[in-house]
Amino acid sequence: MTLLQDLEARLATALATTIGEPTSAAVTPAADLRFGDYQTNAAMVLAKQRKTNPRALAQEIIGRLDLTGLAIAEIAGPGFINFRILPQAYASKVQTLLRDAKLGVPSIGEGKTVVVDFSAPNVAKPMHVGHIRSTIIGDSLCRIARFLGFKVIADNHIGDWGTQFGMIIHGWKNHLDEEALAADPINELVRVYRDVNAATKADPAVLETCKAELVKLQAGDAENLAIWHKCIELSKFGLEKIYDSLDVKFDHWLGESYYNDRLAGLVDEFLTKVIARESNGAVCIFSDGSKKQEDDPFMVHKENGWTDNPAIIRKADGGFLYATTDLATLQFRIDEWQADQIWYVVGVPQQLHFRQIFDAAARWGKTGDFQHVAFGSILGEDRKLMKTRSGDNVQLTDVLTEAVERAAAIIAEKSPDLHEGEAAVVARIVGIGAVKFAELSQNRLTDYVFAWDRMLALQGDTAPYLQYSTVRIRSIFRKLDAPFDATACEILLNEEPEIHLARLHARFGELLPVVLDDFRPNLLANYLLELARAFHSFFEACPVLKSEEPVRSSRLALCELTGRILTTGLGLLGIKCPERM
Ligand code: ARG
Fold this sequence. Notes:
With 581 residues, this protein is an alpha/beta fold.
C-alpha cells in the first residue's frame, strides 16, 4: 500500500463515522510542501452537499481520524485538510521499499492485455525523426505498462503494402544499383522510389507502367510478389539495426499486408450490417446520427454548415484503404490476442482517422479501450520543421550517429582516463539516452525543439545529468571495503534533506500509475530529475561515508534506494546507465 492509499483508507473510515454511511474521498499530493505532503478537499465537498460549515466539518473529520504512526493533519484555508507524513512513517516506508523489487509500484495492470502499436514506418521510405517520437514514446509506454503488471504486446504495424510499390517495382526492374542496395538497402530503395516518382511527373507513360506493375502485384503476379518480398526483407533488416541501437523490441511485426485477405470480407460485413453503404461506387462509413455533430467524426463543419465526412473502406475501383486495414487489424487484435486495450502511438495529423476507426469499431460491436496517443512535431533550432541543409527530412540514423559522436567528444574531454573500449560503450549509452530523454521529458503534444547542446548538458534537465547521478552513487559503494546490506539497517531521518529524499522515494509507486492515465512519460522524467536534485542536496548537506554509525548505514541505504529508483526509472524510459562516466 502506498502512503497515499493508506491516507485514503484511514480517511474513508473517519468519513464513514462522521457522515454515517460509507464515504470515500481522494487524497492528492500537496502542491506546496510548506503546507504538508498530501491534502484533501473532502470536507469542502461534503459540506457543500450537506450545507454545513466546511471548516467545522473538517475539524470533526480530523477528530475522528486515526493517523497513528502515519501523519498529522491540520485545517487550512476554507476547509482543506493537510497531512504531514511523520519522519518515522517515511523511514519505515524506505525500509519496505529496500526489500521490494518493484520499489512500491502496484500491479494495476494484472490480468489486462494491452497492444501497443508504435513506430510503424513505411517500407521504402526512410525513417525520419518524426518516427523517433513514436518509437521512443511507444517503447517507454510498453516498459512502464509491463512494470505495472499489464500483459503487453508490442506490434510494429509497418506500412508494407501501398501504392508506392508500383513505382518501386518499376524502379527495381529498370534502375536498381545492386551494389548500393547491398551496402545500404533502405537508402537505395528510397532513391529508386524518389527517382521513379520524379520520372512519373515528367512522363505520363512511366506513371502508367507503374500503375500496371501495382495492378500485377495486387493480382498476385509471381515476379512482382517476389520483388515486393525482397523489399520488405531488406527494409526490415535495415530497421532492425536501428531498433537494436535504440534497444527497442517488438513482439510482432504484423504490417498492413498481413491483413490483405481479410479486407474483402470485412467490407461485405460492414455492408450487410449497414455500418457502411455505397456512394458513387465506393463503400463508405457515414455518420449514424447518434452523436452531436461536434463530436461526430463522420461530420465536418464547412462554410455551408455541417456536411458528411465519410471514411472510405473500398474505392470504386475495388481497392482497399488505410481505414479498411486498420479495422481488420483492430478486429484481429481483439479476437486473436484478447486485447483489452490498444494504444496507437501516432502523430497528431492522424487524429481524425483514429476517431473514425474507434467510432466504427464501436458500431461494429468491438469493445475495448482504444487510445490514440498523439504527439506533435520535432522542430529544428530555427523552430521550423527539422530539415537537412538540402531541405530533406532529417533521417533517424543520422541523428543517432551524431548523438553518439557528440557524446564521445564530451566524454573524451571530461573523463580522459576511461580506456577506449569503455569510452565507446559509454558514448553510446549517453548519446542515445540524451536523445530519448529530450523526447520523453517533453509534453508529447507540444512541438519540441531539437537542441544538441541542451540535451547533452551534464548540468541540466538531461539524461547525462541523471546518468551521472547514478554513477556518483555507484562510486560511493565502490569505496566500501565490506559488502553493504541495506535491508539490515535501521533508517534514521533527522535532517530535512534526508526526509525529502525519503518523501520522493515513497512517491515513485504513486506516480507510475498516473503516467498511464494520460500517457505522459514526462511525469516520470520530471520526477527523476527532482529525485536526482534532492539527492545532490542531500549529498552536499549530509556526509555519508564520514558519519558515525548508525547514521552512516542509514545514509548509505538512502543512497542505494535512490540509485535503484533512478536506474529503474531511467530503464522505464528505455535509458541505460553506465558503470562510470
Ligand atoms: N505507417 C503509418 C505512418 O507512417 C503509421 C501506422 C500507425 N498504426 C496504425 N495502426 N495505423 O503514417
